[in-house]
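Q: What would this chain look like folded?
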Amino acid sequence: MVDYDNGKEQTDDRGSAEDDLSYKAGYSEHSDVLKLLDQCQESDQDNREAVREANIFLDKRDGQWEPEWSNSVSNGNKPRYTFDMVNPIVDQVSSEIEQSDYSVKVSPAGGDATKEIAMTMDGLIRNIEQMSNASTVYSQAARSMVIGGMDGWRVVQKYVDDNSFDQDLAIEKIGNFVDRVWFDPSAELQDKSDSRYAFCLHPMAIDEYDSRWPEGSGESVPDDRIAEVYYDKAEVITVGEFLYLESKDRELAMMSNGQVHEVDETYEKVKDDLLAIGVTEIKRRTRKKHYVCSRYFDGKDFLETKKETVFCRIPIVPAYANFKIFENKTIYWGVVEKLLDPQRVLNYSVSREIEEGALAPRAKYWMTMSQASGHEKQLQTLNTNSDPVQFYNVDPENPGPPQQQGGAQINPGLRTISEAMRGMIGQSAGMFAANMGENPGLQSGVAINALQDRGSNGAFKYSKGMEIAIAATGKLLKDALPIIYDTKRQVRVLKEDESFDLVDLNQKIVDVETGEVEVLNDLSVGVYDVTCTAGPNFKNRQQETIEAITSLAQVDPSLMQIAGDLLLQNISTPAASQIGERKRAQMIAQGLIPQSQMTDEELQQLQAQMQQGQQAPDPNMVLAQAEQMKAQADLMKVQIDAQKVQNETMRIQLEAQNDQNEVVAQQAKTQVDVFNAQTNRIKAQVEVEKAGATIDHTNIKALGDQLDNEQQMDIMEREKADEEQRKARMALTSTVDLMRIANGGQ
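A: My prediction, written as structure tokens:
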């Protein structure tokens, strides 16, 4: 939990050592401001370049390859594939932050602070966050912080609408924080609340610049970028905003009723009124008051005069990851910086594997010309035909059938490197398979939770960075609220469950007993602390509340008597909300809800009932109703237990049915395999018979040709041909018999 203590005074008090700080007379020289900007950029240039490299690594095409490799001419034709394992890690860490609920809490710390004013400030800050869509601002900044180690946003003051003089506060995202925001190099706090000044650069279109500052030079403020990776961009002029602290003396007056007023025109006006009701001034003292001024400038001169803001410190909030001060220098980095090298090596090694596999020659059959003679046509279709037999000629000089040789020979060292880099990426990020949604070892739920907890340890520091930044935002808002809401005004106060109340601020009433004028909901009275805690979001906490109350009610059913309305309020359905209202009304009538937990409307109704002489509920009736509710709770528990038994029985039946289905599926698969084997044997027999028929046809044709061309062939030669034909048939018959024996006699 991050805690900010506002001290004993309402405004920031930096102590006597800082009361004498000189703020350079408002930084009136443009050259001095440019020099300060240059010093800020120079002191943090190395960190910013690392952040830019991390963002380019993730976002730019070919960004995950080293620039030297990409730009090398000799590597122009080499394959460069990207196997991104870093983005999923960034998504995982960012999602854990986005799924958390960062709650700003204001607490009384002294003076005339009250719990009611603190709750009002809570609701105002929560309303400002909702109206500013701060959850999206925080989420975007969190992802950038995880990637590069820094990002942030700012708090601004603006008018409620175009037709109002009332001002309000808002939280705004600063795009490209790494290039546009620069803090005082001497500031050492992680939230930079000790910065004396800061710069925020604003790129704007040329026509917008000319319209706003027609006398401006049009020269941009210099940045610190060494090189650019994107070229197709809009033409802009960069204008600088210089935010800096100034101080002035203020005189404080303590009154007899304990209130402290700043001696100004407002105090002088009400001083006589206070004296009329007996409130006198006791003593005075002088202290420093700090306030932030803003001034725009370009590369040549200032564009506007300075403007005072309602803030007492720089209203820009950075979110840092891995923040530390070393050798008087601010250091930070994100998750990507430690993964650059293993990811680049992985991309290179796997790309080389693919290249070697693609360029390696395919396996070939090696044979002599004699072995291939007469079979050239079949050999040409060796990789496409489905012939069961491949013939070749016996070559006495090269005995044996042709042999297949060659094939892809990929360097095994590349595969070893690739696997090592995959493991190194996970270890460097502190992420395990369970964190990434994998369960390769089929571990138990306890083991998975343990691995997830180990992985969450690596992500905690990023969540802590957001916690510190949001706490700083809450302090900025808390300090500015009394200045923004300094008149009588009705505002919306947002509750944690997104319901709201309308509250009247600075409403003056006269105390009947003392005759003194009191101001209700005066935000300027008292001293308050601001804390920020991170936890599950509201919807998750609703579910946890339901489960917790239900579980406790099974142990102690009487809890349903005093927590039934809370249980129904956390069920997100319209019907449950209506039932909850009825249940709460019933509990109020029974006296089961203490007055400290009642709303103003409920208290008024209760007081009206008491004034009308309504009697309190009969204790015996309350006891009887409690017994009835206990019996209902017992019945509900029995029904829940019966439902659990029924669900377990259905689960066992489903598992048995699944086992039976697997047995039937295996039997069917076996039958299909037997049928396929028989079919293949029949096909083989048919092919053999076709081959025999082809040989007979060839021999008969050869004999006819011989009779036509050699009418005078000797009878002995014809008998010799018949004998060779008979031998061929006998050899073929033997081959068929051997194949049948090999196939089991089929």
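DSSP finds 21 helices and 20 strands in the chain.
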